[in-house]
Design goal:
This protein is 71% helix and 0% strand. The chain is built from eight helices and no strands. The two termini are 27 Å apart.
Length: 231
């Protein structure tokens, strides 16, 4: 249960830090600031709770670790449930804070695609559903390849959290203008529930299915190329 509680807390902090920055300060810090907020939050949680649960903070990460043979089905289920609960609690807190100053929740840092979702918001591209699906699948694949590599037994000790956080920052810089960047179903679910944008929930499936497939593919590829030092 300690592992599951750690995942709940860690995912709560990830959504609060990353999505909170997008909601409250996105207009000031821009895409770069939001990308750094997500990356720095992952770094903080990796070193804060990594020794307890591995700091997955993301059902796609747990999917990749499970498919790579590094965790049991029981733990996979427990991690995913904990991550989703943690994300929803953070989303609820953000919605409460927005209500305190009478703000509109709009897209509420939710993930989506196309002009119908983002409207005339500056910097966003009119991406198709297929484009969004491929973006999320490929970037989650990249994310998991890095995670599985830096947590390999032969990788240098102490640098995994930094490498993972920087990779997540890079991924956000690529895809915030395309999908608001998910690569994390828990983060997507938490914001879609509270967003006022009518397309947030109908488009949510893309940000659940694509990251999970990308993570599974990364695990299978990693198992095919992993160093002989990993058993």
């Amino acid at each position: 249960m300690k592992k599951y509680l750690a995942e709940l807390i860690g995912t709560f902090v990830l959504v609060l830090g990353g999505c909170g920055t997008a909601i409250f300060a996105g207009g000031s810090v821009g895409f770069l600031g939001v990308a750094l907020a997500f990356g720095l939050t992952v770094v903080a949680m990796a070193y804060g709770i990594g020794g307890i649960s591995g700091a997955h903070l993301n059902p796609a990460v747990s999917m990749g670790v499970f498919c790579a043979g590094r965790m049991s089905a029981k733990d996979f289920g427990g991690y995913v449930v904990s991550q989703i609960i943690g994300g929803i609690l953070a989303g609820a807190l953000l919605a409460f804070l927005v209500a305190q100053f009478g703000g509109a929740r709009g897209t509420f840092a939710a993930n989506g695609f196309g002009k119908e979702f983002f409207g005339d918001a500056a910097g966003y591209q009119d991406l198709s559903m297929i484009g969004a699906f491929v973006t999320e699948l490929v970037l989650t694949f990249v994310f998991l390849i890095v995670i599985l590599g830096v947590t390999d037994k032969g990788a240098p000790n102490g640098f995994a959290g930094l490498a993972i956080g920087l990779t997540l920052t890079l991924i956000h810089l690529i895809s915030i203008p395309l999908t608001n960047t998910s690569v994390n179903p828990a983060r997507s679910i938490s914001q879609a529930i509270f967003a006022e944008n009518p397309l947030a929930l109908p488009q949510l499936w893309v940000f659940i299915v694509a990251p999970l497939i990308g993570a599974a593919l990364a695990a299978f590829c990693w198992n095919a190329i992993k160093p002989s030092t990993e058993k």
